[in-house]
Amino acid sequence: MDLKCAKKYDNDFHEIELNPEITLTGKETVVMAGPCAIESRDQILASAEFMSHLGVKILRGGAFKPRTNPYSFQGSGEEGLSWMAEARDRYGLTLITEVTDMANFDTVAKYTDIIQIGAKAMYNHSVLKAAGAAKKPILLKRHFGATVDELMKMADYIILQGNANVMFCERGIRTFESSSRFTLDLCGAAVMQERSRQPMVLDPSHAIGYSFGVPKLAKAAIAFGCDGVIIEVHPDRQYAQCDKDQALSHEEFKLLYSQMKDIAKVVGRELV
Ligand code: PEP
Ligand code: MN
Fold it and tell me: Would 255 be classed as within a structural domain?
């Protein structure tokens, strides 16, 4: 294995500063939460207000959505990102939003603090190289049909361009099981932590695809000892235009957040 992102020594963790207050050193679990898609100015401001009051520092939300169905809501584009930037400035948050292809790379990079490369873009070499030239942390999501080894190799396309600040994200892979949207591959996640020095984030929302299971998987993720979780939460979920079935309500997330804090303590991590 000749990988830049691979571990050389047992304690060889690549630290990543996400904002002036949060640096991942292998002892923290960062919470990134917010809606799947930025739908309106009101929706993202309500999300930001809620998260900042709760203590969550990183707001998620996509403006360019890689939908399976071409007739579904495709995202609010640059206008959505400008609402999200307003929310960041008003509530002192850090933003993570998704790039889907080169057509929106520069726009996303202009507004966001952390660049999320979506699962479907994991094999987009132009995006990977552009991310390598960007001076921002990257969340590289594992494609649902990719092996851990393939994910690590794709990460090297970014790292070889000079940006080593890459986090992995396990967000569920496709298996024979069809009762959940995908299957959260915790075995693969353990392998990523064993073999690579990059921080590893778990995404319970896309993995199960249904809100009833998201708190269960999120708590398991904290107990697992990951470096971050990314969770979809909507202020008015019955009207969510994207990934509605997996969105947590604000009430559900509030309870989950306090439970995650307790679990993090037990496993010797700090929830940030
Ligand atoms: C998302 O985070 O909303 C998303 C589209 O995720 P993924 O790329 O994992 O499907
Ligand atoms: Mn989503």
Answer: yes
Query: Does ligand 1 come within 6 angstroms of the Cβ of 62?
Result: yes
Model's pTM, two decimal places?
Answer: 0.98
53-75, pLDDT tens digit by residue? 999 999 999 999 989 999 999 99
Query: pLDDT tens digits, residue range 164-196?
Result: 999 999 999 999 999 999 999 999 999 999 999
- Look up the domain containing 261 and give its range: 26-271
Residues facing 138 on adjacent strands = 115, 166
Nearest CA to ligand 1 atom 6: 118
CATH number at residue 142: 3.20.20.70
Residue 268 CA to ligand 1 center (angstroms) comes to 29
Distance (angstroms) between ligand 2 centre and the Cα of 63 equals 11
Neighbours of ion ligand 2 (CB under 5 A): 36, 243
Amino acid identity at 47: S
Mutate to test the pocket of ligand 1, among 72, 171, 181 (most ligand atoms within 8 A of CB): 171
Angle at 56 between CA 54 and CA 60, to 5 degrees: 125
Q: Is residue 223 part of a domain?
A: yes
Structural domain count, the chain: 1
d(CA 17, CA 87): 21
> Which ligand is nearest the CA of 247, by number?
2
> Using CA atoms, how far apart are residues 93 and 103, in angstroms rounded to an integer?
26
